[in-house]
Amino acid sequence: MKLFTRSAIMAAAVLVCPSLTNAQGNERINYSEVREPCADYKPLKQPFFGNLHQHTGRSYDASLRIVRSTPDDAYKFARGLGAVTTPDQFGFQTRSTVIPRKLDFLAVTDHAEFFGEVGICQDISVFSGDPARNSLECALLNQYLYGPTSFPIPFFLRSSASAAFTIFSPMGPGSGLFSSVMPMCKRTRSGCQQAELRVWDEIIQAAHDNYDRTSACTFTTFVAYENTATPTFVNHHRNIIFRNEDVLERPITAIDIASRPNPVPTRQVVSPVLGTTPDPTILWRGIKEDCLDRPGNCDAVVIPHNTNLATPIAGVATLMADPPGDTLREQRRNARLMAEVQPLVEIYQDKGASECRFDPRFRNILRPAEAQTGLAPSDVRNPGEPDEFCSFELLDAVSLAGASGVNPGRTTANSPQAFDPRAYVRNVLKDGLSLERKLGVNPFKLGIGASQDDHTSRPGFTVEDASYNGHLGIDDAVPTRSINTIQNSSGGDWVVWAEENSRDSIFDGLKAKETYGTSGTRPIVRFFGGWNFGKNLCEKNFVRRGYQKGVPMGGDLPPRVGNKSPRFVAAAWKDDFIGTDLQRIQIVKGWSDRLGETHEAVYDVAVTDGNGGSVGRFCQDRGRGSEHLCAVWEDPDFDPEENAFYYVRVLENPVCRYSTEYCQLRFGINPLSDRCEKQKERIETQFPLLAGNVSQCCAGPGTTPEDVPFLETVIQERAWTSPIFYSP
Amino acid sequence: MIRVLRSPALHFALVGLVAFVVVRSQAAPEVRGASEVPWTKARMLYDEMAKSKGRPLTESEMTEADQMLIDRETLYLYSRQIGLQRDPIVQRRLAQIASFVSENPHEAERSAEEGARTAEEEGIMDGDLISRRIMIDAARRLIRATALVFQPDDEAMQEYLTANAERFQQPGLTRITHVALTGWRRADPRADAVTLLARLTSENIAPEEAIGLGDETVLSPELALLPDSSLERRFGRAFVKGLAGLPSGSWQGPIRSRVGEHLVFILERVPPRTATLGEARDQVSSAMRNENADRVLRARLDELQEVFDVRVQRPPS
Description:
Chain A has 17 helices and 24 strands. Chain A is α+β, with helices and mostly antiparallel strands. The longest helix of chain A is centred in the first third of the chain and has 22 residues, at 189-210.
């Protein structure tokens, strides 16, 4: 009844589109759909905070963790129109959350693999009669396993959810070869295909219903999904975000991009599946041919995420691998395709940060440069000092085999050298410069943002306090229970500079890479680069001059003027809702020298004077930072023959991590106290039922590789901008 | 009286009544007689609710909890009455349980229907949480669905919108001109702002002329009519709070923002208003249909409770 068929939307779009651009009475934005122009239009752009990575109960790995909410629920939650209910550790839907601060935009990105299975198993029609509903897979997906008469046992429930995840994941997303649908779809292939389209329709419908097309422009939605290739648990995940409702007929899934198609798609081939990498060019080409290049208004971007969980295993390539191809020509062609279709990357989310990795546990064991993944000794500007701010929300696992935490069975930490350099975005950006020298095209000229990857339909719930109660349903309903969950973060925001809050304006901002990511707070960050900026630009309207005389974040510096070095203006304003002061603005430079070797350097360009920012033993703020920082900075080591990038990192004053406050306020255990272990023992003795819940409360940053898991009890929230690029 | 009779909302409510009649005709319950929700179940719910509230339940909360238990049990009995246990997934589950608990392994070869029948006869179905949940949900959906399909007409929606205006509010709008004074060039921008305010007021300087007296910032000095959310995006939360309640038509301030101190001239305020039907059609329709479905469900539950006579067992004395 509720389904709004895609064909109807498409037909309406096709009928109306030829006259859209001018008929809307807004010459400022070329709308690709029917809508009213926004009343609040700002030519010098405004920051819109959103999330481009959100799951609901329509994702198989959320459903099997007893998450029951829908795409519509997620959009309503983001708009502040309703509460979302999530399961507690017993699997009961007892937790209700409302968003603390509304979002400006959202893309629901459910896993497209198993849409068919999910569609059949969650079919709510009475007496649907589809025999596949009786399958074991449906029992797993719906978690109809406990009972028959007993009270649900939480340990069993979580184990069965994990078991279900392990059964589902390798079958479709998990192999790079001969990937397959689940056995339940063997006999009812057409039923599964219809169900897949039903779920895809529901996602489009939810985006349609929740998009504000009035001139108030209060909320923007994007049709989207996630391609979840996970060969041998190496993370090859990519979100696909569409500009409007002119989208792919059906999503291109991980099953579609297997390096060799399964000759009998309904047959499971268990071996050989290890050590094979899926073929991402099938996805990129599919997006290009079936969306970008076909008649109509289809447009899309592909956004990889969690490079931090993509260290190669057993011959599987990393997520951010070189452009594929046997010849230079083929590599160049694929590099162009990547640059066009995949212009952005997610640098931070619930499963940790992917900017860079400095592991303080190895500070006294390895040479300084070796404690930072992918750093050459010659990169260390101040001898003995790698980039220590890289020690932020790091996961101990090298892949998803640890279910986003510590690798199973490991009692010591992986050395920084055990991680592939391209597991971190800064190194990917540097290698892009080298590839640009080799191929003439930079396939990694990436814009930056952050999101959540929440699986409970709670977009924007990125709180850093005791109210945070996980992002994976029953699995981490008490996040302090396990080393696999306490390392998870509370997620971030994707910020887009755009003229107005409409799909086309924000999507244009995404394609222009005029974006930044935050770790969950909402500071405002501006960044411009050019050749003719005055030194006192901070005192003026540097935004207007920034656009007139230079380029914003995500742009390419225009051709060099005379013998000048580039100048940058970087400014940040604190989030005055949360209220944490700013500590510093840094500019991170990466470059490729004349030999093609890459380097990096980090510059403090604006630091609060005498900032003694820290937190007390009970998480109270100590010391003041700045409400606003701004600086004009000129590259002191600029070499016009070296291609380079520059991005801004803004650091706030230290605050307690959510897990610290969680243990303090919920259990009376203080991770910042020397008596933490004693407090924990007391709770375990007096309240044996809580023993499991507090098991990780005293985990801390650690000083040796034996200190597992890695956990910062106090963090510095931050923002990362898209880089500004320079090519000779 | 005639006016009331002509009310579109009343007509829509009558549609709900029709739906109710249709639901009643779905199945006429035949089984009568008292049914009891066990005390252990009631106590478990009380304990859960008390735990989540962090205090003992009040009497009205306990009554509410009892009603919840009675409703669920009633729906379960009703679902059995109309044969929802024949849903394939329920049957399959019951058959699996029946074969699992069976003493004779050969019985595992029975058909799903036979297995389910055995489970029903042996009372397994009544105790199985999952089967009960599926059947209760299905019964609830079935009753509500009968009312959800009726789409209210424009006249009824307009009446509903008028009666529930507070639920469909559009935000208020404000148009301001401001003069910004920043800390980049000034030692004490707040003191300078106070001095400038005195001058603007005493010399009666018009907004368009005053703009040049402030510092250049990233914010445009003249703004369109904007809601608070847009102002907050530009100036920050503290500024929007400071702006609330200030009079229009004169220079006010200073108010602190992200960029510094501001003197503000409010040119226009548009108060919050109710959305038009065109703006809120989907939300109004959805709210009306859901309310109607809830009414039909409640009415049906009340009627079914008389038939099944469900009570909550009291604690053994």
